[in-house]
User: Fold Coproporphyrin III ferrochelatase from Paenibacillus typhae.
Amino acid sequence: MTAKIGVLVMSYGTPESLDGVEAYYTHIRRGHAPTAEQLKELKDRYEAIVGGVFPLRENTNRQVEALQEALNKAGGDVEYVCYQGLKHAKPFIEDGVEEMVRDGIHHAVGVVLAPHYSVMSVGTYIKRAKEKAEACGITMEFVESYHLHPELVDVLSRRVSAKLDQFEETGAARGDVRVLFSAHSLPERILAMGDPYVDQLLATSEAIAEQTGVTNWQFTWQSAGRTAEPWLGPDILDTMRELAKSEVKYVLSAPIGFVSDHLEVLYDLDIEAQALASELDLRLMRIESLNSDPAYMSVLSDVVRAKAGQLK
Ligand code: FEC
Assistant:
């Protein structure tokens, strides 16, 4: 008999419509509704992005489908069934666990569509899934990070090299392009917690730099939240301003903390950073997002299988 293993694929989540933005934003802010001004500003950002208003939903759907296919491609005596669990939108993480219960799943693996661990990001996804699974009697194992998986480093390196080729075609020397690796900023207080987020992001950046032979690079943060406490910096916009002062002309953005096209890539980089680049007379390009690239699906299926092997 084929054993069924559930795979809870967790992702940030996005609203289903512009009317849903307020509830989504309130959820992100842990129940505190945004002001009318904050809400308008967020709705405006969604309306401005290219590729649809909420591309993250479709991208996550495709990633979940593609992962299920990749996991079952080889056949064998285990059937993997993927369920979606979103952090801030429906189906919520808890809904995904309940769906597994309804389908008679007893064993499952949880994985987040974000390669780097922070107690404030992946840690909170896992905590919620674990609590729900325990309450429902499902045994679960969790993938915490996969930031140095060789296939991940490989596919991101290919993305970087492809854009450096494009710079070269337009006359720029490869070595003159400053590569800016970036990820979502988090409140600075994670540093006092001994959180691995920063080190993992630097490790991915270093591995890609080594594989591509890039020496002209730095790590910078992006998309810091709009809250009163200090967030990790420097922000990519400040970094670009500094680079312009030091005569840098070409910049390649490599948002390695993200795996999909969504607001933080399509707005914060493609619109906001791109507008600043024009102002500063910098030439800015961005690496393609992974989305459901088979190489990324192969990374995910590898780490999920490894965890499935630890299920008792
Ligand atoms: O396309 C979309 O609809 C969703 C884009 C989106 C992604 C995303 C990823 C991460 N976030 C992380 C941390 C925080 C923290 C706060 C926070 C706030 C927001 C807001 C929006 C938003 N995030 Fe996000 N994030 C995305 C969108 N994020 C919108 C609210 C408005 C704003 O501040 O810009 C602050 C919460 C608070 O108020 O306390 C913290 C992290 C990631 C990357 C890992 C992951 O995907 O989970 C970390 C995509």
